[in-house]
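Could you help me review a protein record that somebody else here produced? My question to you is simply how this chain folds and whether the tokens agree. Thanks in advance; the entry in question is below:
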Amino acid sequence: MKGAAMKKIYIRTHAYNASETLQRAVDSVLHQTHADYIYYLCDNGSTDGGATRRIIEAYAKSDRRIVPFYNEMNHVWDGSAEYIDLPLHVGDDDYFCELDADDEYLPTFFEEMLDFMQENDLDVACCGNDFLDTAQENRLVSQRLLHATLILEGQQFAELFPYYHCFMRTCWGKLYKGRSLRNYITRHEDCPNYPVAYGGDTFNTMRVFQNARRVGILPRSLHKYYMSPKSTSYTMHPQRIQCDQILHEAAMDYLNAFGPVSQRNRDFLYGVYMNALRDTANLLLNAQMPDSEKLRYFIEMVSCRYTHQLMAWENFGVYHSENPQSVQDSRKELFKGIAGWLLSLSEVSNEQVEDYCNIGELSSAAAEDSERWIAFQKRRVKIYAMQGQIEKAKRKLDELKELVPHDKDVPYLSQLVPATEGTVTD
């Protein structure tokens, strides 16, 4: 360490059924070249027969810097308030960081980050990250890394937003001054708009950045993130779509604090939102759940006003991307995939048919796919006829006759009007 004696570092790891990876994480802390820290280590209600708890107990007995906590149930903090509320009680000039139970820091993480913070008078310091795929024997698949040091203060938080945004998505790989943590959300029940399913890292890190006077990004990769299919990022949660919307709103609020949101930043954020929708759509398509449940989620996704704005955004990508055509093509592919899946359904319940047709037409229009848009128009005629909504069916059929008077399906649809009520089938 350079300079005067440093304040204390508080580091926190909570582990759930992490007996296979926890040793890697804890050892990476114990092997730090800067050894003055307190390590809060919690068994977060593991159900692995005590394996995770025994590892924590053994480490706590062998190193007095480790403070152990044991939850009886996952994410129930009744007996571990000191642990979960730690960020709120770190001294203003002390330091705090997080480490997942399956990740690790390089041995010089504390030393290099403390020096970086001292030299640049920072409230928050970020480092680069290595991303390793556990499904490929921990092969390095990507890095999040700048080529030069970046220091943010004042309006630079808004002006350079697309450049540093990826570092704000996660709470790990950072060292925080205690004074920057005062609006950190430790218990989601205290915050009505907290993204419970996933994205809590991003939500809290944005709050910390907004509270920070100066933030620095060190062009050194000092953290290893092990990508696991069990991560909440790769699993479907009932509130996931809502979380995509919450994070989009939170990012807009973050930027609004620095003045009117620029066209560039707004364009960039809709690109981020599009990528979130794509990840969620892929999870949905591969999820083991009934089609009716998947449809309910797609209705929620496509009916959202932010999705409508994304669909209608003219010159999308022009303000933030060097290749706006590629961004626009990605948008088309996203909604083309959704429309294709919707058309593959052989049965839709009466309760969902109206929304089904609405999002099908919207998705087809966003994909600039006139053939599929017409296909949903035809389905709407069939649905109205089978539900006995004859007037609606006739109006839609008349519209179709004007649009595609020679279409081969028009005579067939004409025979369905009137029709009896029932479940829609192909």
Summary: The radius of gyration is 26 Å. The chain is about 45% helix and 15% strand. Residues 263-286 form the longest helix (24 residues).
